[in-house]
Write a structure and sequence with these properties.
With about 425 residues, this protein is α/β, with parallel strands linked by helices. About 30% of the residues lie in helices and about 25% in strands. The protein has two domains: about 280 residues, 3-Layer(aba) Sandwich (Aminopeptidase), CATH 3.40.630.10; about 140 residues, 3-Layer(bba) Sandwich (Glucose Oxidase, domain 1), CATH 3.50.30.30. The longest helix has 20 residues.
Length: about 425
């Protein structure tokens, strides 16, 4: 880790006269996605470690703090899963994040437990459910129930809806559930949610094919008030300092579950690296407008950091000319997607972006989308700020909310082109 940071400092020293620097951005992505940052979530205070790293670099660049030590503190309630995390089925140890995952609100569980089985399609038949419960009444509260969805296309929509209700309601009264799935889906950890009164795990159907009779489960989860922070900085404008261009990215990710790290290189160490690179550039080449750099935590838990900043702004939102949110910034071989592209206060900018791209051919395609509550621009749009959200499409990047989203799995060969497209469109 120390060697990586020293290399980062060397790159910063060499890069102060350049515009964009994809080599430096790669260093930032590698650091932020490393194990030392614990996936930049609430567990093991990974987001605070990342915030300190970003703030240190902003200070080194010469960007000015918007808050003490560049940090805007706030809190929200969330889950931390810092203890054991393992499942063995009939003695076979499963690989976390690959063979199984856990619902974030799941109740913790330690010990050996019997497994009962119920046909997924029969879950919509009240008589079948009642007969099963009557037959196993003495076992239910001490057992885990396995319901294998397998290939979901083979199940009715009603059956899938009923199985999904198990995420909220323990309709069988068991200690927990093992839901068989074709593949392990993305992991998320919500904020301000209540812990379930039962455990809920997702297991690849292949691991359940022989219907093991017992499971050994170790899983810890705590519902806590998590103190976190946004990282905030600015560079004063040279001609019109009261007008602002705002660049933003969320630096948090899923975090770490037990020993499993979700690195979040694409989502969103990549966008964070780009905004850090922008802060470095404008600190040495100030624009005529003030440039503001916002790094939000809590995005993965429901846009918590951007919501807090929008409600407790450290800048005059009325004076914002444009906000650019950057999320999922690796790849880009097929172009970019721009959310909130055709609103009354962003349409002219989007048309200019298309014109710039037609002239220079920076990206293959620019796809407009309507506004959506899918990233940190959302609450600012709700408050009347002109804001767009840019993400790349196509090319190489890690799996979404997966342990496979590593720096090594990400390409940034379109980084300079997308940077130039953004800057020329904004006239910077």
């Amino acid at each position: 880790m120390k060697r990586i940071i020293l290399f980062s400092c060397l790159c910063i020293a060499l890069a102060t006269v350049s515009a964009q620097d994809s080599t430096l951005a790669r260093v930032f992505i590698k650091n932020l996605a490393s194990k030392e940052f614990h996936g930049r979530g609430g567990a093991f205070n990974g987001d605070s470690i990342a915030a300190s790293y970003i703030a240190e670099k902003l200070s080194l660049f010469g960007a000015k703090p918007l808050a003490d030590d560049y940090l805007q503190h706030y809190s929200f309630r969330t889950f931390k899963m810092e203890g054991d995390f393992s499942i063995s089925l009939a003695g076979k140890v499963l690989e976390p994040g690959v063979d199984f995952s856990v619902h974030a609100m799941s109740k913790d569980f330690h010990g050996k437990v019997d497994i009962l089985y119920f046909d997924a399609e029969k879950i919509t038949d009240p008589d079948a459910v009642q007969q099963f419960c009557d037959k196993n009444r003495k076992k239910l509260s001490k057992s885990f129930l396995c319901i294998d969805k397998g290939n979901e296309k083979d199940l009715s929509k009603k059956a899938l809806r009923t199985i999904n209700q198990l995420k909220r309601e323990n309709i069988f009264g068991v200690a927990g559930y093992l839901i068989g799935v074709e593949s392990i889906s993305a992991m998320s950890i919500p904020a301000n949610a209540q812990q379930l009164d039962h455990s809920l795990f997702f297991v690849r159907s292949e691991m359940l094919a022989k219907q093991p009779k017992t499971a050994e489960i170790k899983y810890d989860s705590k519902l806590v008030i998590h103190r976190t922070q946004n990282v905030v900085a600015y560079v004063p404008g040279t001609e019109r300092p009261d007008s602002m261009i705002v660049f933003m990215a969320h630096y948090d990710h899923v975090g770490q579950v037990g020993t499993v790290v979700y690195p979040g290189a694409h989502d969103n160490a990549s966008g964070t690296a780009a905004v850090m690179d922008m802060a470095r550039h404008f600190a040495h080449h100030p624009a005529k407008y003030t440039t503001v750099f916002l790094f939000f935590s809590g995005e993965e838990s429901g846009l918590m950091g951007s919501k807090y900043f929008s409600e407790h702004p450290l800048i005059d939102l009325y004076n914002v000319k444009m906000m650019v949110n950057i999320d999922l910034f690796c790849g880009g071989d097929d172009g970019i997607i721009v959310f909130n592209a055709e609103a009354d206060d962003t349409k002219a900018l989007f048309e200019k972006m298309k014109q710039v791209n037609e002239k220079h051919g920076y990206v293959k395609d620019i796809e407009p989308r309507k506004n959506s509550a899918n990233s940190d621009h959302y609450y600012f749009v709700e408050r009347g700020c002109p804001a767009i959200f840019i993400l790349t499409k196509g090319g190489a990047y890690g799996g979404y909310h997966s342990p496979t989203d590593t720096c090594e799995g990400c390409a940034i060969n379109k980084y300079n082109d997308v940077w130039n497209l953004i800057m020329e469109t904004l006239g910077l």
